[in-house]
Amino acid sequence: MSRNSIGMRLILGAFVCVLASCGNSESNSEEKENASTDTAASKKGKRDASNAQKVFYALPSPIETADLLKKAGATYNKDYLNSLDNATKYNTSAGRALNLGVYGTDLSFTTIFDASSESLLYLKKVNNLASALGISDAFGETTMDRMQANSNNRDSLLSIISDSYWTADAYLQENQRPATSALIVAGGWVEGLYIATRVALSKDNPEINNRIAEQKLSLDNLIGLMTEQKKDQDVSAMLSDLIDLRDSFTKIKTNEGKSTSKTDPNTHETTIGGGSSFTVSKDQISEIAKKAEALRTKTINKS
């Protein structure tokens, strides 16, 4: 399923909600008043959703981050992942949302690196957190059954995970819970950056360092997404930390270039080439790694 089709589903979902609310009016006059109010709210909601979607879809998914690291020469190390034992301590909506993102990234890493037995364990934790957030349909028994049936097919597993996260995001957007969706995205991004920096510190690889530097752009997008929902207290707290992290990324030199893109007509996947390149030093990687570790520690300890 393409990201554009997901965006269209969100718009159609909002339209259906407007129709449903109008249909429940008790009188003609109330219908007109409610219809007018709902239409105005709907238009505003669509504008807000459109802005959020632009930055949301510009972010690399956990799967993309894991795949980029593997192609850059990273090796699998389960010690980089959030402990499965931590899952029971997430009792607030914010803690569950952030760490659904964290465990989602961990799930993607175990899958990319063919750790199928651990993938199923992380999927169970993802399912538990999703259920607690009221989005169990995205990661329920059907998803687990599909993953078990395809445990030896990495491409199928990645497709199942990706579809599940888009389903979860669509549900949250359609049910006016964009702050929860933003926290899930933030948790996943932070975990991806944390793992990347752990790899970079243990293995001096220019390609991996460049992958980290590329997050300078995705961090700007993430900050834009979080800013959309900054009235939420937990989003605001995360936003403050991300802005502090951006201060370190701004030290990285960006070499502007012309980007190209090509979309496969069959898979609807878009490959982006060219674009900006970066000049990053070991000291800059170390500084980012330190802040990433601190932010990740705060994230996984958010009860």
Structural commentary:
- The protein is mainly alpha-helical and 303 residues long.
- It has helices at 3-23, 28-58, 62-71, 93-112, 116-132, 136-139, 141-149, 154-174, 178-202, 206-228, 233-249, 282-300, and strands at 253-255, 259-263, 270-274, 277-279.
- The strands form two sheets. The chain has a two-stranded antiparallel ribbon with strand order 1-4. A two-stranded antiparallel ribbon has the order 2-3.
- Helix 9 runs antiparallel to helix 10.
- The longest helix is centred in the first third of the chain and has 31 residues, at 28-58.
- The chain starts with a helix and ends with a helix.
What key phrases describe this protein's structure?
303 residues; mainly alpha; 2 domains; two-stranded antiparallel ribbon; two-stranded antiparallel sheet; disordered N terminus
Largest sheet: 2 strands, antiparallel
Gap between N and C termini = 33 Å
Assembly classification: single chain
The number of domains is: 2
Mean pLDDT: 75
Strand neighbour order, sheet with most strands: 1-4
Which class best fits the helix and strand makeup?
mainly alpha
Helicity, as a percent range: over 70%
Order of helices and strands: HHHHHHHHHHHEEEEH
Radius of gyration: 20 Å
Shape: globular
What percent of residues are in strands?
5-15%
What's the total helix number?
12
Count of distinct strands: 4
Q: Which stretches of 5+ consecutive residues score pLDDT under 50?
A: 1-57
